[in-house]
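Run log // design_07
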């Protein structure tokens, strides 16, 4: 079952996400934002901060979000990129807690 915006707002307001911005809630989703912290194992230094990153062929990057998200054990979620090219190329694996 896809959770509606009412559920998402209640979950976020109860500490499910920090920092919480109500404008990030959509009809059945929550928008997360990328931070400026990157790890790219093919570069030196491997870990760095930058406002954006340009990937070259064969490179992969691990990005952090500005939000810390706590997903209940009874809920499954997925993270989808808004960019068409990003959706084709990215595999995202958020850590679980709880």
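design_07 sequence
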């Amino acid at each position: 079952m896809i959770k509606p915006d009412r559920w998402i707002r209640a979950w976020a307001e109860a500490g499910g996400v920090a920092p919480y911005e109500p404008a990030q809630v959509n009809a059945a989703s929550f928008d997360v934002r990328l931070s400026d912290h990157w790890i790219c194992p093919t570069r030196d230094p491997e870990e760095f901060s930058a406002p954006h990153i340009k990937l070259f062929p064969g490179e992969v990057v691990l990005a952090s979000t500005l939000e810390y998200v706590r997903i209940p054990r009874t809920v499954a979620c997925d993270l989808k990129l808004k960019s068409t090219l990003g959706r084709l190329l990215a595999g995202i694996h958020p850590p679980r807690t709880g």
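The helical segments are 5-16, 84-89.
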